[in-house]
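Forum: Protein Structure Q&A
Topic: Joint prediction for protein chains with partners

I've read a bunch of threads here and the consensus seems to be that you should model interacting components together rather than docking separate models afterwards. I'd like to see that in practice. Below is the full input, 916 residues plus whatever partners are listed. Could one of the regulars post the assembled result?
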Amino acid sequence: ATTITISSLLGADKPETKIWFKVKEIVDAKLPGRFDFRIVQNAALGGEKEVAEGIRLGSIQASLSTVSAMSSWVPESQILDAPFVFRDAGHVRRVLEGQIGNELKTKFAAQNFIVPGYINYGARHLLAKEAITKPAQLAGKRIRVIQSPLHTELWKALGANPTPIPITETYNALQTGVVDMMDLTKSAYAGFKLYEVVPYLIETAHIWATGVVYFSAPFWKTLKSSEQEVLAAAALEGAHHFDALIVEDETASMAKAAAAGGKTVQPEDRPAWEAGARGVWAALGPKVGGVDKIEAIAKTA
Amino acid sequence: MDTSLETAAPIGASGRVAVTLDMIELALKWLGGAILAVTFVLVMTSVTLRYVFGSGLIWSEELAIWLNVLLVSVGAPLAVTGPLAMRLDVIVRFLPRTVQLAARVLADAIAIDASIILALGAAGVVGAIGGTSTVLGLPEWLRYAAVSIGGGLSVLLLFGRSYLQDGLPRALLVLAIGAGLYVAAHELQIASLATPSLAAGAVAAIGLIAGAPLPHTLLVGVSLAAPFGAMLPEPALVQNTIVGVSKFLLLAIPFFLLAGGLLTEGGLADRLVRFAASLVGHLRGGLAQTTLVSSVMFSGASGSSIANAAFGAKVMVPALVAHGYTLPRAAAVVAATAMLDNIIPPSIAFLILASATNLSVGSLLVGGFIAGGVLALALGVGIYITSRDEKPVREPASGRERARSFVESLPAIGLGIVVVVGIRFGVVTTTEASALAVAYALVVCLMLRTLNGRSLASAFCQAAGEAAAIGLLIGTAAPFAFLMAVDRVSDLVTTVVTALGGSALAVMLLANVVLLAAGLLLDIGAAILLLAPLLLPAATLAGIDPIQFGVILVVNLMIHGLTPPLGILVYVASGVSGARPAQVFREVVPLLIALLCALAVLCIFSALTAAPTKL
Ligand code: NA
Ligand code: NA
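Posted by a regular:
Agreed with the consensus. Here's the joint model:
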C-alpha cells in the first residue's frame, strides 16, 4: 500500500478531520488495500502554511487549506477573500463552479497543488462586547485580526484599530480588554468559547472563508490516471460532506453560544459597511486581475 | 579583543588556520549580538507605535521571525564547537580508552553529517519552496539561504577545529565518516518499518551516548530513519527544523536571557539578595533560606534557570561557604532553588511548551505562580529540616532595615512586575513583554550607571549565542516530533499511560513515570518538545486540566535539572563554584525529595479536581 500522509488541524470530531474519514471510506471501497491513509490530527504536522510547504517538499500528501494561506503561492486566490462581495454560501459556490474556480485550479496546479474541490468554512462575523451594528460604532475600538494585510486594511477602513494577536492568546486579550472585538466563523466562535468574552455576534458575513481540498503534485504524478480519478471524485464528495457538516456545526455552535448567554445581532446600514470595503477592493485589484473582476463577482447572481 | 591570541599563536599552517577560525567565530559572535540588537529595536518600535500612536507595523512580527532564523543560522556554527554544544559526555568517560576514542570520532562525524544536512537540505528548500511572504513581499527561500550558509560554516569550523586538535588524518577520517552517514541516509534501503521513528530514536540515542551535540544527534537520527521507511525528504526535514524556530513567541527566549544577563551585570540582582537576607536571614539555615528567597525574586524577572544557577553560584556560594556550609552543599542549595526560575513566570520552559502545544502562555503563567509557591515552600521546609547544624547568620532585621533594602531592590522587583503585568494584563504578546523587560533593565541600569558600552555589548552577544543554541535545539526537535506524529506514537503513549485504567489519577501517575524516565536522558527543552504533544491528549481525555498538566510536566522535567547523568543545574552550579558534580548530586538529594513531595501534591490536587471532558 502507498502511504498518504494527511494533515488535519483539528480533532476527530471536527469536519476538518471527518472529511478525510469519508475520503478514505470511498477510496478503500473502490481500491481496497491500495492506500494507507495516515490522518494526522490536531495540527501535529504544523499550521496551514507549513503544511502547504510540506506538500511541495514531499513530506505530506494531502490536506485542507483556506485560500488565504495559499495566497503566498497563488496571490490571485485572494479574490475569494474580498470583503462584502459574496452574499451567501450559494453565491460562493456558483462562483467557484464557474470560470473563476477553474482558472484558480490551474494556477494552484502550476504551483504543485492539485485541487479537486473547494470547501466552505462559513462566513466570518464580527464579535464584540456590545451590539455594534453600524461602522460608525467601530471608531477608536481595537479589533484582533489575523496577520494579513487584507484584514488589517478592512478594519482600518471601517475606522477600527487592528491588532494582530495569535489565536491562543486572543481569549485572554479580550478578557483583559487589550482588544474589544474580533472576527471569526461561528464554529470557531463556539469552539474557543469566545461567547464568554465577546457575547455579541454581529452577522456581518463580511468574508466567506473558502478553502481547498488538495494533494501534492509530485505524489499525484506517481498515480495511474484511474487512481487519480478515484481520489479526485472521493475528494469532491468529501468536500460536499464537509460543507454540510459545517452548516450543522454552525447551528450547534450558535445554540451552545445562546445557552451561555450569547446574542446574535443583525448589522444595519449595509451600504456603509460596503463603502468601507471598497478601498480594500481597490488595493486588492492589481493582485487578483483587476478591480473589475471583483465588481463583476459582486454583481453576478 | 584578546591580544594573547597573537603572542601565543602557533607557527605555520596550523597557526594561520587557528587565527582564521578564531576570526570567523568572533565575527559570528558579534553578528549574533547585532542581529539581536536589531530585533530588539524592531519589536520595541512596533510596540511603541501600536500603544503610543495606535498604529502597528504589519510586517514587524514576520521580520522579527526571519531575524530569529538568521540568529539561529549565525549561532549554529558556534553552538557546535563551543561550550554551548549540548554534549552528554558522562557515559563515554566510563568506557575503555579505545572505545572512548572511537566514540569521539563518531560524535564529531554526527555533527559533520548534521551540518551537511542543514547546508544541502536548506539549499534544496531554496529550490523548491516557492512563494512570497505576503506581509514582507520577500521570497520565502531567503530564510533558507541563511540556514544553508550557517550549515556550511559549521562543517568548516568542525573540520578546522578537528584538524587543530587531532591532526589532519583524524580530521579527514571524521569528515569521511560524516559524509558516509549522509550518503547512507540517501542511498540505503534496509527495511520498511511501521514506525521508522523507532530507528530515529535508536540512532539518536547512540549519538547521544557517544557524546555528539544533542541538536545534531536529533537531525541525524531523523535522516537515518529514511533507510527504515520514513518519508521525510531532506528538504522537508530542514523545512520542519526552520518552522520549529519560526515562531514569534520564541523570540521571548533571547530577550529573557538578555534581561537576566543585564540583571546580573547591572548589579540589580545583588540588591535582591540584600532584601532577601533582611527577610529570612535570621531563620535556621538563614543563609540557605536567603538563597531560596533571592532565587524566587530573581525568578520573577528572569526566565532561565541556568542564569539563576550561574548567578547563585557566583554570589551566594562564597557567602554560604564562609558561614560554614560545605562547598558541595552550598552548590546543591543553589542548584535546587534555581529550578524555580522556569516555574515562576517568566519561564523559557513554558514558552517552549506553549509553542509545542498551543497552550496559552497567559494561563500557564498563572499556573506557574501557584506551582512555584508550592515548590518554594517545599524547598523552605527541606532547607529548614536539613540545616540543623548551621547557626543563625544574623539578628532579625529591623523594620527600617527591611524597608530600606526593599526600596533598594525596587528597580529589580519592577522588572518582574513589568513582565508579569505585561503578559497578563497590559501588553499583547509575551514576546513584546520580554522586549519591554529588556528595555526596562537597560533604562534602569543606565540611570544607576552600572553598565558601560563594553558590558552592554557582551550581554547582547552572550544572550544571542545562548539563544541560538536553544533555538537550534527547538528546531531540530521538530522533524523528530513530525516523524512521531506520522507514526502515531501518541496512540502508543496513550495506551501506555492508560494501562492502569483511564482514571485521572492513574493517567497522572503513569505520565509522571514516563516523564521521570525520559527526563533522565533527555535535555529538558527536548523532552518538553517531544513528550508534551504525546502526553497532553491522553491527559485531556482523562479530564485533567491541560494547563495544570502542562505545569506539572514542566515541574517534573525541571526536577531533572538535579538528577544524574544530565542534571544541567548541578553542572552549572558546580562549574561556576568549583564544586565536584558527583558530590553535589549527593548533597542535593534531601532537596530533591522535598521537590518530589511537592510534585506529588500538585499531581494529586490536579487529579482530584479533574473533570471528564464532554465532547
Ligand atoms: Na522565571
Ligand atoms: Na534565572
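Residues B 260, 298, 302, 304-305, 307-308, 341 surround sodium ion (ligand 2) (CB under 6 Å).
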